Amino acid sequence: MSEPGNTLIGLRSVTKAYRTPAGPLFALQGVDLQVRRGEFVAVVGKSGAGKSTLINMITGIDRPTSGAVEVGDRLIHQMSEDEVAAWRGRHVGVVFQFFQLLPMLSCAQNVMLPMDFAGLYRSPRERRHRALHLLDSVGLREHADKLPSEVSGGQRQRVAIARALANDPMLVAADEPTGNLDSRTANDVFEVFSQLVEEGKTILMVTHDRELAARTSRIVHLADGAVVEPEELQDETSGTDR
């Protein structure tokens, strides 16, 4: 595994509050977090702890109410919506729990989409060649021309991972990527992530699976919108955080 180098992600005093009739609802409260290049970080916590909100801050899908979010050399919270969208498409791969593949496109075409949007790889032939290479890297090259409905759930998630890697992102952010899979298939997906880390990728993974989390480089615990030390957690010593 490559040794983590300099900081890739830096959050400083990040707060996210949503307006409600009863007043502000704080999803994140003064979060400070650093992730170094080459780390495989698991984010764990109960439902409502702020895990998905944290991922959304880092990927620019949502904006903080206050505080600073820096990824690479960019201050994400200061960028316009168009700038964030272009930056995310080029530098961040996002993997979701429910795959979010376009059902009318083949697996290879789904992987090619981010390249089309970002204007990378000059010709359709080059894009398909890269898509086939990425599908091969997750063990699915032979399924390249099948529709998502023609492969299993675990295979669809591996297609989603290949799509996330399309533009060679510096960061892969995964929000409950194994939450919709059985334990054996979840382990297969985790092994794909582990191999990516071995190759130097940085991965931030929200998960409710404590066993998988324990196999990552580092665990970040969230409770009530704040990063806490394990000994500060209460009532989380048994069960899952679904």
Euclidean distance between termini CA atoms = 31 Å
- Full CATH superfamily name: P-loop containing nucleotide triphosphate hydrolases
Residue share in β-strands: 25-35%
Looking across the biggest beta sheet, what order are the strands in? Answer: 6-7-8-3-9-10
Main beta sheet: strand number and arrangement?
Answer: 6 strands, mixed
Question: What is the N-to-C succession of helices and strands?
Answer: EEEHEEHEHHHEHEHEE
Summarize the amount of helix as a percent range. 25-40%
Q: If you average the pLDDT, what whole number results? A: 88
Look at the structure and give the CATH class: Alpha Beta
Stretches where pLDDT is under 50 for at least 5 consecutive residues are 235-242
Q: Compute the number of structural domains.
A: 1
Category from helices, strands and their pairing: alpha/beta
Q: Architecture, CATH level 2?
A: 3-Layer(aba) Sandwich
Estimated radius of gyration: 18 Å
Give the overall silhouette: globular
Q: Notable features of this structure?
A:
four-stranded antiparallel sheet; Rossmann fold; single chain; 32% helix; disordered C terminus; alpha/beta; six-stranded mixed sheet
Task: Map the helices and strands.
Layout: E1 7-20, E2 23-36, E3 40-44, H1 51-59, E4 66-71, E5 74-75, H2 81-91, E6 92-95, H3 107-118, H4 124-137, H5 153-164, E7 171-175, H6 183-198, E8 202-206, H7 210-213, E9 218-223, E10 226-228
Parallel strand pairs: 3-8, 3-9, 6-7, 7-8
Antiparallel strand pairs: 1-2, 1-4, 4-5, 9-10
Helix pairs in contact: 3-4, 3-5, 4-5
